[in-house]
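Weekly puzzle thread! Below is a chain. First person to post its structure in token form gets bragging rights.
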Amino acid sequence: MLILMTTSSWWTSQVRRHVRQRVRTELGASTIEVVLIAAGLAAIALAALAILKAKVLDTANSVPTN
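Winning reply:
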């Protein structure tokens, strides 16, 4: 009976350790995903601003000054 209780306790601790480790890994992975998504959106926003700036400058340069 003592062996069964010890084995059961060991299995319980292993399951808990596995669950904690998995949660930590999933939280880390989701944090990385959020950072990558934010970086991608920032890159798209910068590209859109660069295109808009180029169009505005092109329009300003084509206006006759006389």
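Puzzle host: Confirmed. Bonus trivia for everyone else. Helices lie at 2-61.
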